[in-house]
Amino acid sequence: MKYVSIVFGAIALAALAMLAACAADREPAPMPQQSTTRVAEPTDVIDQRLMLALSQAKNLHHKAKIYISDGNVAAATASVREILSLEFPAGAPEAEDVRNDARALLGKLLVGQGDLDEAMHVVQEGIAGSQRKSFFVANLYTVEGEIHEARASKLPAGDPHVVDEKHAAIEAFDRSNQIDVELQKQLVEHQ
Amino acid sequence: MTDRNDDDYLAGPVPEPDAEPSAAERAHAKTFAELVDKTLAGRMPAAMSADDRALVEVATVIRAASGEVELPVARRRAVVEDALRQAVGGAGAATTAGAIVTLPRRRWAPWAVAGASSLVAAAALAVLWLRAPRVAEEVAPPPPEVRATPASWRSRPADPLVGRIQRDHAGDAATRIDTIFADRLDGYRERRLVGGKP
What we know:
The structure holds two protein chains of two kinds.
Chain A: H1 2-25, E1 37-39, H2 48-69, H3 73-84, H4 93-112, H5 116-129, H6 135-154, H7 160-190
Chain B: H1 23-40, H2 50-65, H3 73-87, H4 108-130, H5 135-139, E1 145-147, H6 159-162, H7 173-195
Helix pairs in contact in B: 1-2
């Protein structure tokens, strides 16, 4: 019987010692950090590079506008061409829009200078390089139609290519309208 | 020889050790011996002189001290049976020998110690279990709330901003780039000021 008491007493002492050790080592529970609202930071946010490219495009357009107002179409054309070489952030949708808009203006300037082939090349290059339908692409088709009109008007009467150019112009205008209507519907649906 | 009074052997002078006993002394000794024998045999006379009673009591004490006193068989058997009866839980019979005195038992002490120790151990384990840290609660802080990036902060197509481009304004790119730049600048400033990003 004495041994039983000794064993139980030893167990109790061990338990107390363990409790004391745990109590001494225990650190106070850290206070829960206050939750902070964090905004997701995707890679397509507006950053300095995008703003710089847009700013340069804006200045080049105004520069071209001044040249045009002064009748210096060549300088205006050069300014607009600079827009096509601006560096935008990779994948920025604004890059395609701004470049297509610059191509549309450049095409019209080239048409004004009588360089219809170069105008057509600039416009068709923009259409072919576009990744999506947009009002700017539709505008390129509009300019393409104007170029076809200009070509038809420059051909001699009775030239069989006149009809072809006119048909191409009509097709370009129709394509422009088709894109506009399609995008307009999408915008209305999203509103 | 000294003057002797054999009738007063208690208060009288003590005879010499080697002195011859007198006839009176012999007669008295014989009478007392018979009295002692009767007493030991349980036949003590109801009446005796005070001197004889005192002597009988002394003789009884001396005999008891010598350890040779034995109870009668019947009396001894009664005492043994009474003791056995008390041992098995029965009530002891009334006896002149007196009840058997049982010492207080101390068997409860070891069990009390063991029980108290077990209680302390159980309490310690319970406290340990109750105070065990909730690992999941302490280690993992709540994740910050992630809010979707506002659309005005993101690079996106300019179609909703510009709208359909009329043929008359096909070459008015300067006006459109102004609109686009102003809108994106608003988003960029908002992101910098509110979001704290460069």
